[in-house]
Amino acid sequence: MKSLMGYLFVVVAFLALLSSVAFASDPSPLQDFCVAVDEPKAAVFVNGKFCKDPKLATANDFFLSGLNIPGNTSNPVGSIVTPANVAQIPGLNTLGISMVRVDYAPYGLNPPHTHPRATEILVVLQGTLYVGFVTSNPDNRLFTKILHKGDVFVFPIGLIHFQFNVGKTNAIAIAALSSQNPGVITIANALFGSKPSINDDVLSKGFQVDKKLVDYLQSQFWMNNN
C-alpha cells in the first residue's frame, strides 16, 4: 500500500509540474509595444490599468449608458463606432471583453481595419451590410457575406475586415470583442496618414503605383471613425 501511495504521489506531482509548464504563457498585450527599461524610475504601469480596491467598487464601475443613441455618421466614410471598452467601463479591466455600436449612413463604410488584440463577433440590428475579411499570407483569401437584421458574422483576430452598408437606409450593428482594449488599425489611415509620413518610395513600390498617386493620398484628410 505504501509503495502504491508513493507511486500515486509521484504521478500527481509530475502531472502538476507538467501542467504548470504546459499552460504557462505571457499575458496578451494590451498596448502596441512595451520598451524594456532597467531603471524602475523610468518605468510605467502597462498591460491594463491599476486596480481599485474591491471594497471601493460600485455598480457604476460596471455600467455605461448611451448605446441606444445613434452616432453621427456625417463624415467622409459615412460610419461611426461608439466603443464600450475599459476606457468607458472601468470594471472591464482584466475581464478580456468589450463591445461597440457601429452606425452606418446609406452606403456608409467601416473601412478595412484590424483589431490586433481581439476577435470580433458582429450582429446586425438594422439594415443590410456587405462584410468580409481577408486571410493572412500567402493565400489572402477573401470571405464575404451579405448580412441582414439578426445575422451574425465573425472576424478572426488580427485579420483585415470591413463592413459596408449596401442599403438605402441607415444600418446599425453591435459587435463584441475578446479584449477589454482590442485596439484598431485602420489600414488607409495608418499607411497614408501616418505622422511623419511614410517615404513615398516605400508606398509607391509597395502598392505598385506612381508616386504622384501616393503623394495625393498622403495629402488627404484621413479621419478616424473609431
UniProtKB/TrEMBL annotation:
Binding site for Mn(2+): H113, H115, E120, H161
Predominant location category: secreted
Keywords: Apoplast, Disulfide bond, Manganese, Metal-binding, Secreted, Signal
SUPFAM superfamilies: RmlC-like cupins (SSF51182)
An MF annotation (GO) of this entry: manganese ion binding
InterPro entries: Cupin_1, Germin, Germin_Mn-BS, RmlC-like_jellyroll, RmlC_Cupin_sf
Coiled coil: none
Localization terms from the record: Secreted, Extracellular space, Apoplast
PROSITE patterns: GERMIN (PS00725)
Signal sequence interval, chain numbering: 1-24
GO CC terms, sorted: apoplast
CDD domains tied to this protein: cupin_OxOx
Cupin type-1 domain: residues covered: 65-215
One of the Pfam families matching this protein, by short name: Cupin_1
Disulfide feature: C34-C51
Similarity-based family: Belongs to the germin family.
Protein name per the record: Germin-like protein
Protein source organism: Macleaya cordata (Five-seeded plume-poppy)
